[in-house]
Amino acid sequence: MPFDAAVVAAHAEALDAQRWFEAAALPFSAGEERALADLAPRIARVAGWAEARAIADDARGNAAYDADAHEAALLNARAQAAAGRDAVLGALSAIVDRGAAIFFAAAERALARSGLRDDELSRVAAGAAAEAAYRAALADAVTGRAHGFVRVGACFAAGRWPLARIDGTLYVL
Amino acid sequence: MDTVSIEVHTVAELAQAPAEYREAAGKIVRSHAINELYGAQVFDEPAVAFAPTPYWKWLTCRVAMEEYGHHQRFFRLGQKMGIPDDAMVPGKTDKRPLSIFEFTMTSWTQFCVIKLLADMAEIIQVEDLMECSFRPLRDEAAKTMPEEKFHAGFGLRSCTELCRSAAGKLEVQAAIDALFPGMPAFFGQPHSKNNALYRKWGLKQTTNEAMRADYIERARVLVEDKLGLKLPAPD
Q: Which is nearest to A52 in space by CA: A146, A148, A172, A158?
């Protein structure tokens, strides 16, 4: 499948309209539970930012993170083989450019709703959202919407933060 | 060299400024555009793989985005000034990035030390630009400053954390020994003609020598007073 830059552009265009971190720490709806069940055998809700920080900082999450990074590298290589390096990076830069302010501001607002201000944790959350949005756009443009990265991206876009997969359990703020 | 009292408020006004001023302002903008991007490419992006947990990987990812954002700020200013795009992108221009980027980073500890020492050097440069006679450049410098300060603070916090163990302390010292001697070169040669020209036109306020001395003293405070380690001699 060739790399479809228009798909990436559509992801970038939609960034403003998403609910980044708005549902953080809230109970899951029935619809969310169904959607999350596609992502891991077990889902654990994380009920606060301090716990989220601790789970994100757990080295047991590295195996799943590294597997995702490897998959992202493969997708990038496929995209660049199909469309050329400059075209792929140019298209995906729109996610970074448009998302930079959006993700950070959304994370700051979400922390503030919990009575918190934490420049570092806001950046960690913004970095996670940016990475997920980038990978979702890339995967959608290369393989289509069935890819797991697209579902993880949708989870972020719906206001959640999937923090780590550890021993078959996905921890979600 | 005598100084000239001038303030250029907008890019449109720049067209009326003397050719020497326009050229000097362009050199500074190009340098920042090139080095912000190159630093993100050779240090920040690769550091994501070295980071010890997803928390630090995402933080590093965000820091890389912010450094890239700084490149974009200077790049867009350069475009408005009429600088060709390729002249502001490393690999597409003959102008080489700063020599500190030749340092081969091989570990998370080294990245933390880079944030500690290299971003502090960047802060000193940006502080100087905040009094720049070319207002659009001054404004961009002011906008990047809070993030530069966060990056340097991240360097200090992460190095402090690493220094809690004896082994970590040794690693941080080894990284400082490897990185620091080449760092003062960041500020350019003494008696630099370019720097003299920048000061003549109020684009910069401080000599390379004075910035270098300021940097070495601030680095000493960080490394010796705050971390309890030893600052090696510069090259």
A: A172
ipTM of the complex: 0.97
Q: Are A37 and A162 in contact (CB under 8 A)?
A: no
Answer whether B170 touches A (CB < 8 Å). Answer: no
pLDDT tens digits, one per residue of B57-73: 999 999 999 999 999 99
Helix locations, chain A, DSSP H: 5-14, 30-37, 49-56, 62-83, 85-113, 119-142, 148-157
Q: Which site among A15, A76, A93, A120 would you substitute to test the B interface, given the most B Cβ atoms closer than 10 Å to its Cβ?
A: A120
Two tokens at B171?
A: 């690693």
Residue B96 contacts residue B185 (beta carbons within 8 Å): no
Reported pTM: 0.95
Most B CBs within 10 A among A117, A131, A171, A172, hence the mutation to make, goes to A131
Q: What is the pLDDT of residues A92-129, one digit of tens each?
A: 999 999 999 999 999 999 999 999 999 999 999 999 99
* Cross-chain residue pair B60–A100, CB shorter than 8 Å: no
Whole-number Å distance between alpha carbons of B209 and B231: 19
* CA pair distance B76, B144, nearest whole angstrom: 14
Whether residue B7 contacts residue B135, with contact meaning beta carbons closer than 8 Å, is answered with yes
Residues of chain B with C-beta less than 8 angstroms from the C-beta of A73 = none
